[in-house]
Design brief:
This protein has six helices and no strands. The chain has one domain: Ferritin (Up-down Bundle). Helix 1 runs antiparallel to helix 2, helix 1 crosses helix 3 and helix 2 packs antiparallel against helix 5. The protein is mainly α.
């Protein structure tokens, strides 16, 4: 007797796309994978990815706040601010990628969707309508201040835990970018005359 072949025949190759597929998550949010040669214990990576996701949510919100301001700015400084806001938007977009990739590198999962960002961010939600330039600038500065404080705390904690990569990201990328952008934005809130100098009492004597 011939031996019965119980193996299934190979599936036929088909050009038909397999659409509408769904399956369970291959990794749950708030966890880290185990087998990574990073010389960082799992509790450290869990803490760092949690803090980095908070920083990511706020950075994504600031990025989008810059784009909103870019689209809706109005007034005599429209051209200058329109360009500045878009430049800062691009720089914040680069930070978003840098932070998210650090989370993934540590074995965690970075947030990605707008509704998740909205739930997590600590930055005040602006109205849908257009606001005056000083209000736009003040909102941006408030957001920068929050992120600058976060990045300093994260850098200090990462240094204490021996996570040099996260420490470097917090200082070299996030902190320095936000400090520089905050300086550029804040200078637009200095109340200076445009075409006629204000004579001081010392100059008048």
């Amino acid at each position: 007797m011939s031996k019965k072949n119980d193996s299934k025949p190979p599936s036929r190759v088909s050009a038909q796309p397999r659409i509408h597929q769904r399956a369970g998550a291959i990794q749950e949010y708030g966890t880290v994978t185990h087998a990574l040669p990073l010389e960082l214990e799992e509790p450290i990576r869990l803490e760092m990815t949690e803090k980095l996701n908070q920083l990511l949510a706020d950075t994504m919100t600031l990025r989008d706040l810059y784009k909103k301001s870019h689209w809706q700015v109005a007034g005599p400084t429209f051209y200058q601010l329109h360009l500045l806001f878009d430049k800062h938007f691009g720089e914040q977009s680069e930070l978003v990628d840098t932070i998210a990739e650090r989370i993934q590198l540590l074995g965690g999962l970075s947030i990605a969707m707008a509704h998740d960002v909205a739930e997590l961010t600590q930055i005040e939600r602006p109205p849908k309508g257009r606001e005056e330039v000083p209000v736009q600038l003040s909102r941006l500065l408030d957001a920068h201040q929050l992120i600058i404080g976060q990045s300093r705390e994260l850098a200090e904690r990462a240094d204490k835990l021996g996570d040099d990569g996260t420490n470097d990201l917090a200082v070299s990328d996030v902190l320095r970018t936000n400090e520089l952008q905050a300086w550029f934005v804040s200078e637009h809130l200095v109340n200076m005359p445009l075409v006629e100098a204000v004579q001081t009492s010392a100059a008048a004597d």
